[in-house]
Design goal:
- 23% of the residues lie in helices and 23% in strands.
- It has 257 residues and is an alpha+beta fold.
- The protein has a single domain, classed as Ribbon (Umud Fragment, subunit A), CATH 2.10.109.
- The strands form two sheets. Strands 1, 2, 3, 4, 10, 11, 12 and 13 form an eight-stranded antiparallel β-sheet that branches.
- Strand 5 and strand 6 form a beta hairpin.
- The longest helix is centred in the N-terminal third of the chain and has 22 residues.
- It is globular and about 75 Å long.
- The model has no long low-confidence stretch (mean pLDDT 83).
């Protein structure tokens, strides 16, 4: 019998070219996944609390809600948007056209939506929404809590374009979701600027569905608006220094529902 050393000596060793080819394959696969299938996204505001917190970093499935492509369909699970889905989409606000927004889908095309005293009714049925963060209701806001019955003209948060077009979508006290559009709302209803304020989410603006939180870091709400170089450097250094004590470890790999 051959000794162990002899057997190991006879095994063909991977050449440098083979190693580099294997490494390139891994890198190309990873780049493909990050570019076309998953996208990293940071939650910038409190509008989706307590489902998503400021500083949650999530991976977004970019393919699930995209138009179906034949060559990739065998390896990718496509799906339609359903009631209750959390989605990421491009801002519908012309003042922030390149900003990514995350909301929960409340209305699909053809649905009839209205709010009464902060409670959502869809197609005449009161919704059971355990994901909604309870509000204090100390400050009553007529437009926010009784949409669309209360006129929007005096609300500074409502986009002018939405003020002009909203009435064309109202039937018998309900807002009716048009084709290829969705009605989205934040889980933190008292502070969320959503479809009540800027209108419907266009289907072509939908980026994808957040799958899970891969990292969560305690972050001030004002940080996402900081654009100056010194502010960015300060935030970066703060993250490095406090990585361990301000990371929310209990949220790591938590699914988004």
């Amino acid at each position: 019998m051959k000794k162990k050393d002899q057997l190991e000596a006879e095994k063909p060793r991977e050449t440098t070219v083979e190693f580099l080819a294997s490494l390139a394959g891994v890198l190309v696969t990873g780049l493909f996944i990050i570019t076309f299938i998953f996208q990293a996204f940071e939650i910038p505001s409190s509008s989706m609390e307590d489902t998503l917190l400021i500083g949650d970093h999530v991976f977004v499935n970019r393919v699930q809600f995209s138009p179906r492509t034949g060559w990739i369909q065998p390896i990718v699970k496509y799906g339609d948007i359903h009631h209750g889905d959390v989605v990421v989409f491009l801002s519908m606000d012309p003042r922030t056209p390149d900003m990514y927004i995350v909301k929960r889908i409340i209305g699909l095309p053809g649905d009839r939506i209205h709010l009464r005293d902060g409670i959502v009714y869809r197609n005449g049925q009161k919704l059971d929404e355990p994901y909604v963060r309870p509000g204090s209701r100390d400050i009553y806001e007529p437009y926010r809590d009784n949409f669309p019955a209360v006129r929007a003209e005096e609300n500074a948060n409502v986009l002018d374009d939405w003020k002009l077009t909203m009435d064309s979508h109202i039937e018998n006290g309900d807002i009716v979701v048009p084709p290829q559009s969705y009605f989205g709302m934040g889980d933190n209803r008292d502070v969320s600027l959503d479809s009540r304020y800027w209108g419907f989410i266009a289907q072509e603006h939908v980026i994808g569905r957040p799958m899970f939180i891969y990292w969560s870091f305690k972050t001030p709400e004002s940080q996402y608006a900081q654009r100056e170089f010194t502010q960015r450097v300060s935030a970066f250094l703060h993250t490095i220094i406090h990585f361990f004590d301000q990371t929310r470890w209990n949220r790591t790999l938590k699914g988004v529902r």
